[in-house]
Amino acid sequence: MIRRTAFNIPSRRWRQVERWPSMGWGACRRAWRQAPGWLGRQFRAERDRWVLWIPVGFGAGIAAYFALPHEPNLALGAVVSCALGLALLIARSRGGSSLVWMIPLVICLGFSAAQMRAGMIPDHLLTHPLSGIARGTVSAVEDRPSRPRIVLSNATLQSVGGARELAKVRISLSSKASLPAIGEIIEIPASLRPPPAPSAPGAYDFRRAAFFNKVSAVGYATGPFRAADGSESAGGPGEWLGTWLASYRLSLSRRITEALPGPSGALASALLTGERGPLPEDVLSAMRESGLAHLLAISGLHMGLVAGVVFLGLRSVLSLSRRLTLSYPIKKGAALGALIFAAAYLLLSGASVPTQRAFLMTGLVLVGVLLDRQAISMRLVAWAAMLVLVTRPEALLSASFQLSFAAVTALVATYEWVADRRRNQGWKENTWWRRVLVYLGALLLTSAIANIATLPFSAYHFNRIAAHGLASNMLAVPLTGFWVMPWGVLALALTPVGLEKVALVPMGWGLDLLLAIAKTVSSWPGAVIPVAAWPAATLCLIAGAGVWLCLWRRPWRLAGLGAVAAAVVLVAMAPEPRVLVTGDGRLAGYLSSDGRLLLSETRRERFTAELWGRRAGGVETADWRHAAAGPRCDDLGCALTLNGAIVAFGGSGRALADDCRRATVVITTDFAPSCVGPKWVFDQAALLRAGGVAIWIDGGGLRVEALRKGQGNRPWS
Predict the structure, then answer these.
(1) CB atoms within 10 A of CB 23
(2) What residue segments make up the domains of the chain, in order of their start?
(3) How far apart are CA 247 and CA 143, in angstroms?
């Protein structure tokens, strides 16, 4: 039987609910009319939680900006924000409800922040492939086992058409090539192209990320580099500091891998410096498939462990002195030292979005210790998110931001509920075995909540779910917290005196065990569950439902479960494109009725083919010329019958003329200005303009869209 107390419904109202079957429709309508009043009282009772929705509204405005198909007028956001701000002031002066104006104002401020951020970045993307001599200052080096990469800042490309100035250029080198030093000015022959656009509907937009990171072009070296003559401006203090930190981080990474050779040394480098280049591919795969990939990204776990180890270590050392203990607040001194060490760790690790969030939260907790305040709360999470979004609005779209804040928001909401239960029921852990049980239960709960909270974002961005992540985290997280990271902190502290190997060797023992856990769990049957791609709107619905569940405290927050259920239904109903074609027409794929992805080419464009297969749900790929369910092919081209319509590929000459007479969709790498019979024609020029083609079965016919339609007409597209 459903109990009234489970939903916190007053006794008088509950008696009305119980009498509904015998009250008749008139009484039911009266109770329905009273429901808004009850909801309003519930809403007002959570007044202290209203402020938590400011970052949510701000993020909604940022999402609205990036969802637009065309770039809005630069003054739009600012004008609307000023108008709403004026309306808010008038409403407050007249004693009206300011909440009506506050919500759209916060959304508009988020929209304006994203618009201003994009407007402050000049147009720097390369528009077409070029080859020549690239010159610039080496600002980053990724020392990977295969094809290391370098980044040139303040770059110029000297090609046949003249010199072209670029912001940053990322160049892949040969695996046998020597690497330049960070800060060195070099010249290198290279073939460059614009950052690639998404090759499937809803896929990761590397071009947008490159625009905001000021990466103008990517490519590969066609010869060895040489040191350039002359000198160039090193930029301001910020650029000089960034170059120095990158150089120190790379040298520290090399010292770690020399002191601790093998995969464990590469993993130690990733944990301590954020340099994941030396990690072998099999280690990366094992960490992903076992659900331990979050350990490779320096985030809340690492920052909290580093600050905690330093705090406890300093406090223990200071407490050895009776005079210091009695005369000075050693707890605050330890907190200050931990804050300084955490800031150094932030700079050393490259200051990624998860690391920024982790430092903000850890720093506020330590500041709370300095001010004798309790800092761990949902407001701390909200303001950390707000600071990240104000400074880098584009971070909202990144997987790291979404995964990081989803996990920490769910964990804080869960432990708020646990703390309330403990206060109300008087839980006590007065024996050692109860403390052990509580720790194990907290570890299990933390792993379960973090996995559940990040599951939809992992499925959306990576099209896979680590099925055994809970088991692996139960073993790996305590190992990392109690053994690996304390030795890592000691290694960083001993680095200035050259004794880091003393701590790295025992750290390596723990890392060897961590790698054994990852490889064992990843080898279990069903370790990875492939997930087909689904629309971004569904992820927004799930994220909104999750925020609703976490930010409110009263039982009405359970309405968010209905939105989650609706999102699951939408995911199941999301249509998949049956045909995909790249923008240059070199690769086409067909999702056949037998569940395989049939490809026109299996030797080239392997990255794109792998992406299509992963987004189709991890399906098997094959050459369509050898598949019975694939298109019919001959020496002149291929034709596919899809829902009664003919889709023709690659025809030329006589075959193209025949395709234009009988096909519904014609896709060719030739020029076909006279092909007017089909409903859709994509020749070489049209494919280039479209950026690729996607075809769905829609009702009784086909739906054909250009991939560039999803990107819109934006500064990065």
Answers:
(1) 15
(2) 4-41, 48-119, 130-233, 249-530, 536-573, 579-711
(3) 12
